[in-house]
Amino acid sequence: RKVNFFNQQPWLGTAEKSVDRHTHYLFPFNKNVEDFLQKEKTLIHSQIRLQEDVKMAKRKNQKIEKVVEDWLSKEIYEKTLAITQLIETSKFDRVAFPWLEFLPPMHAVASKSSTFALNEIMEALEDDEINMIGVRGIRGVGKTTLVRAVGNKIKESQLFDDVAIAVVSETPDLGKIQDKITDSLDIKFERRSREGKAKELLVELEMKKRFLIILDDTCDELNLIRIGIPFGKYHAGCKIIFTTQSKQVCETMECQVMISLNIIDEEEAPSMFKLHAGLDNASPNIVE
């Protein structure tokens, strides 16, 4: 039996509700357009019919009612104004942002440690003096789930202009890291070499005011400039979160905040096991 991840994860925000809220505007869009076009068509026909009546009356040297003249001039003016406003308000810097790539696995469960770590990370991200955050813990403890949850929260709160995530791994491929970051930020490379990509990425990121880069599964020190990430003195608005198993990596990367994600304690173990195994409604005897 699958556990509904979002029902069990109050600390990760309301991802499902947010998706529902945003899709509410997408599904009725076509109907709204059809309604608008139909009403516009009806209005145009009314105007044409009325204008023909006005022309006929003038040929007969009849005086046009003021209310009719006012309606014609008013309707044309208001329609023109409304269309102008629609055109002006349709100019958006962007119409969407990547969301699903930050969704954590559906079988994940929250713990006191992860809840505390999430709050610490969010506090650090809001601190202008902190730009390097390390999340440390053994493999399988939930580091990836945690930082993806952070990515979701940042996307929803718009604390940063952009958020990108890339997996580093034990043998980092700088080219693949560059590609993953640019995919997240919808940037297209013109150059193919790693050095050329780094220059292009550097230029693109320097134009952004505030952005967050999440580097998952970092096993050794990374040269961020070689990847194309302007950091520290090169860009004060850039913040980095990386996950690692090693305390030494946190030290060599000179992280200002190191957050340890611990294994669940004995008190949490039974309830976490029930949720993870899909036994949340099972009797205590079965779990034991």
UniProtKB/TrEMBL annotation:
Ranges for domain NB-ARC: 118-277
Cross-referenced Pfam families: NB-ARC
GO biological processes: defense response
GO molecular function: ADP binding
Keywords from the UniProt entry: Plant defense
InterPro entries membership: NB-ARC, P-loop_NTPase, Plant_NBS-LRR
Domain of life: Eukaryota
Designated name of the protein: NB-ARC domain-containing protein
Species of the source: Gossypium aridum
